Amino acid sequence: MGQITLRGIRKSFSGVDVIHGIDLTIADGELAVFVGPSGCGKSTLLRMIAGLDRPTTGTIEIDGQDVTRTSAAERGLAMVFQSYALYPHMTVRQNLSFGLENTRMPKNDITARVDDAGRMLEIMDLMDRRPTQLSGGQRQRVAIGRAIVRNPTAFLLDEPLSNLDAELRGSMRAELAGLHDRLKTTMIYVTHDQIEAMTLADKIVVLRKGVIEQVDTPLGLYNRPQNLFVAGFIGAPNMNFFNAVAVDGQAELPGGLRVAVPGNGPVTIGIRPQMLHLADPDAPALTGTIRLIEALGAETVVHAAAADGTAMVVVLSGQPALRTGETIRLAFDPDALHVFGADGQRLD
Amino acid sequence: MSKVMGFLTARRGHGGRWHWTDVVTWVWLIGGTIIMFGPALWLISSSFKGPAQLAEFPPTLLPYVQELAVVDGYDDPLPLFTATLEDGTTQVLAEVRRVGTNAQMVDPANPETRIDVNIADRTPVRQIGLATDNYVAPLVANDFVRYLWNSVFVTMMATIITLLTNSMAAFALSKYDFRGRNAVMLLIVGTLMVPLSVILVPLYSVVNATGLLNSLWGVILPTVATPTGVFLLRQYMLTIPDELLEAARMDHASEWQIYWRIVLPLAAPALAVLAIFSVVWRWNDFLWPLIVLSRRELYTLQVGLNTYAGELNVQWHYILAMTVVTMIPVVLVFLFLQRFITTGIAGSGIK
Ligand SMILES: Nc1ncnc2c1ncn2[C@@H]1O[C@H](COP(=O)(O)OP(=O)(O)O)[C@@H](O)[C@H]1O
Ligand SMILES: [Mg+2]
Prior knowledge:
Chain A: InterPro entries: AAA+_ATPase, ABC_transporter-like_ATP-bd, ABC_transporter-like_CS, ABC_transpr_MalK-like, ABC_transpr_MalK/UgpC-like, Mo/tungstate-bd_C_term_dom, NA-bd_OB-fold, P-loop_NTPase. The structure holds two protein chains of two kinds. Chain A has helices at 42-50, 92-102, 107-120, 136-148, 166-183, 194-200, 218-223, 228-233, and strands at residues 4-13, 16-26, 31-35, 57-62, 65-66, 77-80, 154-158, 186-191, 203-208, 211-216, 240-246, 250-252, 258-260, 265-271, 277-278, 286-295, 299-306, 311-317, 327-331, 338-340. By secondary structure, chain A is α+β, with helices and mostly antiparallel strands. Chain A has a six-stranded mixed sheet, with helices on both faces. Chain A has a five-stranded antiparallel sheet with strand order 15-19-16-17-18, with no helix packed on it. By secondary structure, chain B is α+β, with helices and mostly antiparallel strands. Chain B folds into three domains: 2-46, no CATH class; 64-128, Roll (SH3 type barrels), CATH 2.30.30; 135-348, MetI-like (MetI-like fold, Orthogonal Bundle). Chain B has 15 helices and eight strands. In chain B, the strands form two sheets. In chain B, strands 2, 3, 4, 5, 6 and 7 form a six-stranded antiparallel sheet that branches. In chain B, strands 1-8 form a two-stranded antiparallel sheet. Chains A and B meet through strand 6 and helix 2 of A and helix 10 and helix 11 of B. The complex binds adenosine-5'-diphosphate and magnesium ion. Residues 42-43, 158-159 of chain A line the site of magnesium ion. Adenosine-5'-diphosphate is lined by residues 13, 18, 36, 38-44 of chain A.
């Protein structure tokens, strides 16, 4: 079991509010990802769940038990730190055993557990080394191993891959996903990288400035972002936004193309770069002037400026014959539009 | 070996000629060596000289002992001199006794005839040798082994307790956030400015009231809380990442285990530095032990050494020899722990 519930969590550091009231439930066995820009309070939230910090107000429950006042050790959680926080003066084996020794587990059981974790993470031949003698990826494995041996109710991982190079990050991401499938333990994973969030998560929690912007599955977030922030944050390249005014369910995009929108008054219309394609010659189209072409082979990324100067990015498949300075004519499926009201919330 | 020679004969001038920087380097290095080692070597050499030789002027560089000869008719061996006789010849004679400026001497080969020689006309026959009695007498007869043991006990105990208590204080002051933490730190550092002589009298009353007078613990306990140690260790512990302690907390470690198994091992370089300081301080302490200890069998080395400096005469030969003995442990501590000093001092942010 490992259901974690947060109710009305607020946190302030010496008078400065950092977390502004978070309500959230993470189901047993779920891999939840906290994503958001740097400084939005992801680590703070995770540390409060871990028991390393106390919320200013609000309660934390694990499996229905209020653990707000319980110490970190007694919550039965394990944490992987961004810096790994391996004990530098201990060998890998001692690093893995330390937590078990503290619970007065018999020596044989400790050895068995540590060996199991070592085999699972393929670090058996590193057991007698010290952390300083390991590469970044190996340290990462040891840090994960230290969490696994404890058999925790949930894993908490704070940007575990951010210190690795891009290639290693990719393979470790896959391994973590595999690990979660095998262990079926609740995991809370913190990252500022939306690709990690999209590929790993059962559920993504998008945070900004200490508030939850949206909680949904990865595809739910991608397909129906609830507000401008989430729409702009999820998906690469970023979504294109156009400011418009809706009158009688119609709004005009730069260049004169009219589209149906819900609501009235000023709106922001968003469309993903991948949803745009070249328009037929005489069909109505969204037009722009090409500023830069990045031909990647399988796809071509076009940076253009719309009629009113708004920058937009288009991802076209294949290698269309385009030149910088030309006018590009674009069409799209009206269902692919995302419309947001003046308050930044999704309309429809 | 050829590498060493190559290094020593290397010159900055072209073709192995002397450049002026070579000259400056050699003068600087040799001069520095003499200034650093000279006094210590002089002390060691002098500690093997007898009292008479120590009083001599000009002093000799190396220790000499006068040659003795067994002469028929005399129970004790007699000292030998080279004497210039009235007829201008020189002869090796043994001195029987001195009367005023004259010495009564005999020829060891012909002990019946006494020869009177003015003491200005003779020089002692000497060869390089060690007056080991300087060492043997205090160590065997004068309880110096006892003093040595007392000093070792005081130094060891005080250092262990200093390391323990100071590291605990430093741990709390560096890793726990509590109200008044900075005030406490300031207070501790502030006591650095209070010299021993200011608190001597109240400290004496406290030690007296607690019955620690004339006990080695009375020497040890008042010295163990050192502001320098707390400060040095705290600065070092600030560099230990908090995440390590948090990881340990997640690993079910109690605060004591965090201190004992995480913080202490990681602070080892700073602890080594403090250990060296503490050993040197306690070993060299004089004033406080002198005040607390009045029974001879409790004297530490430094206090014991003082007994050779009487009001009327100072037994320099014993003082010099025992000073060498007191130097040895300090030198040993430096030899074994010196590699920690640079890392520890650099790491604690104290230059
Ligand atoms: N111990 C602390 N004291 C004061 N402010 C803090 C502390 N920890 C975090 N903060 C502040 O809280 C905000 C959120 O920090 P953090 O949770 O680390 O962000 P994230 O992990 O999302 O990058 C930041 O503005 C940071 O400055
Ligand atoms: Mg963070």
